[in-house]
Structure formats: structure tokens, C-alpha cells
């Protein structure tokens, strides 16, 4: 399926594909440190494993950044 | 109406020349009150630029002393300031830079039982803190007190920022819901940060504060700006206020502030900012 991940067009062959699968596919090592937006709505973290992605979906990974000092 | 002195007309001439700022904008700046929480990597450039801009009252809240390892990025502190209170060191530089600025030095960290009193009365707040507990506390307190603020976060070569106007735009909790689990987060001192990244991010926060005060341009609301200095890729992700947000949503479940357990500030894989391969 054709996806837009972090603003870039990506072709992914896996289907079905959950948010958790996608995070693994994109080598996000610490999924606890990322907030995921699917087509403009934030996905509840406990549902990452059961929320399925479909063709033409737009997904953004937003990382927690805690530094500042 | 402020009667500008000749020296002030000269000092602020490059602002006054801007047609979107002008005399009126400069008056607004001189009458404005901004609170900077954290006089560190982000707070240092913010404080210097807001002081130079003539923001009339600058509050600086920080309970730490200057450490040698701070000087690689916290440009408001000098070698001679090691071991001095950061707020004392920062106040001294601000006064030296611009005597028009009144400084409120608040030598303490913000906590749930004090933050609302600390932020009340300010027009705009800058989050320059280094931990998630403080970032969520600032968000929730600013939403409750209805004070616009700038969120900022940096790690390694990356930074993120967004401006929050409570009641109008997405808040930090709309995006990040709750602090990450403590065991997912290694310490700040393990992670490291390129000093100039703090300057880049802090300078964006300062510009947002100046835009807000002078009512100029479009604020960075409902958009999270992220950048990776390794590639100089900048990206803005459009966001929306979440109706189910625990603090700014339609039925907020957070009505009182609590101190989260101090989770530290970083994640292992900063190269994953864009997470593409």
C-alpha cells in the first residue's frame, strides 16, 4: 500500500499492518517515546497493536523531546 | 503611551523600522511581561533576545547553579559564573544588556503547588525546562491560567517547538498525552546536545514571544516544528486540538496539578527523528 509517513511517500508491502508493525518497519527503537498521528488524529498508545493502517493513510511519528537545559 | 527617549529610539530603531512592529509594537514590548522557566540551553538565548528587544519585564525561574558543563550551550552564563545561581547570573547579563528591562529573578524550580502563582500576571511563558514532568506541569498550568506559552525540546541534534494559545490551539498534552514511561528515558547527561541546537530552538521561541506581543505574523500554533541539525531538515506537522484532551478538552479530567515523578529527558535513538530508511 501507498502511505505518507512523516510527510514522505512510502510503499509498504505488508498487509495487514498495525501502527506497532509500522513502527518496527521504520526501526523506531523506542515506541514509548513517540506519539503517532494517523490522518490527523492521535492514536491512543494502548491501541497501537490493533489499529490497522490502510492504503493512502498519512502517519506522523512525533518524538518526545525533553531536553532544554 | 510611552515617551521614548532619544536613546530608546536609537536602541530600538531596527524594530521601529519594521512596519509590522513600529513604535506601537515597541511600546507593546516595553509593556510586556514574559516568564522564562529554565535559564539553561533554551532559556539563555530566549532571555538575551527578549532583553535586547526591550521586553519590559522578564521573569526567570530556575533553582540551579551554573556548572562548568553548562557553558557549552547556556550562553548567558560565563566562566566566572560557575557555582553562582543561574537566575543571578542571567539577571546580571540582562541588566547589562538593556537597563530598560526589569528582571524578576525567581530562584526556584516550578512545582505543582507553586507554578500557578509564579506564572500568573505574565503575558507569555517560555518552557526552557529539561524534563517531562516540568513540561507537562507548565502546559497544564498555562492552560488553567489561560496564558499562552512556547513549548521547546531539544536532544542531540534535534529540536521541536510549538506555541500554545490555551482555548484556541492544540496544547502539549493534546499531542503527547502524558510523560513517557520513566524506564524508556535515559538521562540528559547521557544523551548530549549540540550547543548551537539550543540556540536555534531558543531563538525560534524568542521570535514567537516577540510575534505574540507585537501581534505580528502567524504563530506556530497547531503545528509542531521539528528539525534535525544533522541534515538541516525542518518539518512542520499540522495538529489539532483534541476534544478528549485531559486538560484542554471538552471534559477535562485534570483539574488539579500534581508533580509527576521526575522523568528525565531523552530517548535513545535521536537519529530516528524522521524515522525513514
Describe what this molecule looks like in 3D.
The complex is a heterodimer of chains A (69) and B (277). By secondary structure, chain A is mainly β. Chain A has one helix and five strands; from the N terminus they run E-E-H-E-E-E. Chain A has a single domain (2-63), classed as Beta-grasp domain (Ubiquitin-like (UB roll)). In chain A, strands 2-1-5-3-4 form a five-stranded mixed β-sheet, with no helix packed on it. The model of chain A has no long low-confidence stretch (mean pLDDT 93). Chain B starts with 5 loop residues before the first helix and ends in a 39-residue tail after the last strand. Chain B is α/β, with parallel strands linked by helices and 277 residues long. Mean pLDDT of chain B is 92; it is low at 263-277. Chain B has an eight-stranded mixed β-sheet, sandwiched between helices. Chain B contains ten helices and eight strands. The chains are: A mainly beta (69), B alpha/beta (277).
Amino acid at each position: 500500500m501507498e502511505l505518507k509517513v512523516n510527510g514522505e511517500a512510502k510503499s509498504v508491502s505488508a498487509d495487514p499492518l498495525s501502527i506497532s508493525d509500522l513502527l518496527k518497519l521504520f526501526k523506531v527503537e523506542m515506541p514509548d517515546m513517540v506519539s503517532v498521528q494517523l490522518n490527523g488524529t492521535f492514536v491512543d498508545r494502548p491501541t497501537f497493536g490493533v489499529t490497522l493502517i490502510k492504503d493512502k493513510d498519512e502517519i506522523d511519528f512525533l518524538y518526545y523531546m525533553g531536553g532544554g537545559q | 503611551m510611552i515617551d521614548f527617549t532619544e536613546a530608546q529610539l536609537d536602541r530600538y530603531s531596527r524594530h521601529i523600522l519594521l512596519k509590522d512592529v513600529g513604535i506601537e509594537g515597541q511600546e507593546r514590548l516595553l509593556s510586556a511581561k514574559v516568564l522564562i522557566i529554565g535559564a539553561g540551553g533554551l532559556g539563555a538565548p530566549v532571555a538575551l533576545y527578549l532583553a535586547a528587544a526591550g521586553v519590559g519585564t522578564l521573569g526567570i525561574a530556575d533553582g540551579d547553579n551554573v556548572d562548568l558543563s553548562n557553558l557549552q550551550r547556556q550562553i548567558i552564563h560565563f566562566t566566572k559564573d560557575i557555582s553562582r545561581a543561574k537566575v543571578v547570573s542571567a539577571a546580571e547579563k540582562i541588566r547589562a544588556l538593556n537597563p530598560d528591562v526589569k528582571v524578576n529573578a525567581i530562584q526556584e524550580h516550578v512545582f505543582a503547588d507553586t507554578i500557578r502563582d509564579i506564572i500568573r500576571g505574565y503575558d507569555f511563558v517560555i518552557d526552557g525546562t529539561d524534563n517531562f514532568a516540568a513540561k507537562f506541569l507548565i502546559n497544564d498550568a498555562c492552560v488553567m491560567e489561560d496564558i499562552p506559552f512556547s513549548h521547546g525540546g531539544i536532544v542531540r541534534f534535534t529540536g521541536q517547538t510549538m506555541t500554545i494559545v490555551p482555548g484556541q490551539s492544540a496544547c502539549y498534552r493534546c499531542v503527547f498525552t502524558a510523560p513517557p514511561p520513566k524506564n524508556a528515558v535515559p538521562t540528559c547527561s547521557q544523551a548530549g546536545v549540540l550547543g548551537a541546537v539550543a540556540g536555534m530552538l531558543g531563538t525560534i521561541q524568542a521570535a514567537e514571544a516577540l510575534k505574540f506581543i507585537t501581534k505580528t505574523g502567524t504563530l506556530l500554533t497547531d503545528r509542531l516544528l521539528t528539525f534535525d541539525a544533522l541534515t538541516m531538515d525542518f518539518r512542520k506537522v499540522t495538529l489539532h486540538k483534541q476534544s478528549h484532551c485531559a486538560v484542554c478538552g471538552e471534559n477535562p479530567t485534570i483539574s488539579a496539578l500534581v508533580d509527576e515523578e521526575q522523568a528525565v529527558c531523552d530517548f535513545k535513538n535521536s537519529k530516528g527523528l524522521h524515522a525513514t530508511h
